Amino acid sequence: xxxxxxxxxxxxxxxxxxxxxxxxxxxxxxxxxxxxxxxxxxxxxxxxxxxxxxxxxxxxxxxxxxxxxxxxxxxxxxxxxxxxxxxxxxxxxxxxxxxxxxxxxxxxxxxxxxxxxxxxxxxxxxxxxxxxxxxxxxxxxxxxxxxxxxxxxxxxxxxxxxxxxxxxxxxxxxxxxxxxxxxxxxxxxxxxxxxxxxxxxxxxxxxxxxxxxxxxxxxxxxxxxxxxxx
Length: 230
Ligand SMILES: *Cc1c(COP(=O)(O)O)cnc(C)c1O
Prior knowledge:
Blueprint: H1 2-19, E1 28-32, H2 38-46, E2 51-54, H3 57-66, E3 72-75, H4 84-87, E4 93-97, H5 100-112, E5 117-122, H6 136-146, E6 152-158, H7 171-186, E7 196-198, H8 205-210, E8 215-218, H9 220-223
Parallel strand pairs: 1-2, 1-8, 2-3, 3-4, 4-5, 5-6, 6-7
Helix pairs in contact: 6-7
């Protein structure tokens, strides 16, 4: 099943790149494996995937331990400060930094391990009440505050768009994120180059790619529906 699904996803990614005049190599596919067993991750690995996304620290660490060390693990879910320490050295990128206090915790824990941690800032582009993430106007001030942190690097922005029937409805939020990245880069802040736009999920990744996504986070489209009962 994973192989078939991946072929379909890959075709759609390529088609979206083509429509947007973009090279396929500009878009990284992150296979979101949350709640799914390592056997399915191995299936995806057999198809050539090596970048996986998880939204829980414990699950990410368990899978990290169990699977080969040449995989890349991305932390895409809401993160508590007291759990940051478990991620340093295991995760390639934290997508979900949404406060100064969390950024400070990442800085502290990375410093303890002599590491530099790459992060994205999560933006609640649609201003949904139920969602984590910074308001659009909070992003630039936070970038300026954390730019001098020596053990943390702001690499880009991430957003989780609303769940909608018609993905076209989310196009405006992807544009907002892209424009915000352009605005930040225009400020030429030392140590800050926001080149990564993590946006687009199973429901809306084609539109996100058309609007400049450099990372798409796809779970259901690859591994099938998640069962939260188990
Ligand atoms: C679960 C999740 C995804 C993947 O969602 P699908 O709709 O299954 O593709 C992407 N991003 C985040 C932050 C998630 O929590």
